[in-house]
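Researcher: Structure for this, please.
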Amino acid sequence: MHEMRELIRETDLKLMSGTFVKETHADKGTRLEQHAHVYPHVSVVVRGAARLYAGGQYVGDYKAPAGLYIAAVMPHQFVILEDDTIILCVHDMDAEVV
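Model: Predicted structure, token format:
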């Protein structure tokens, strides 16, 4: 029987005024919890691969390097497709809130 590993390591980074980055490092089979933000942001698959769902619909599978625009208030979720995947979520904290 295949053992499901679900280890998620997250780091929050503030790079400069108004810019916030969340780094998520996870292994194959991990589901990152569905969530939404009040402002748009960009998710970047910098290593590995991930499947994106937005608004409850399958959007696509993305292999690094891939940048993905996520609209404000859009519920979204990633499923990790390869071990040792890293996703950066880049937030403009000065963006207009919806």
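Researcher: Any notable elements?
Model: The chain has a mean pLDDT of 88. The chain has one domain: 8-92.
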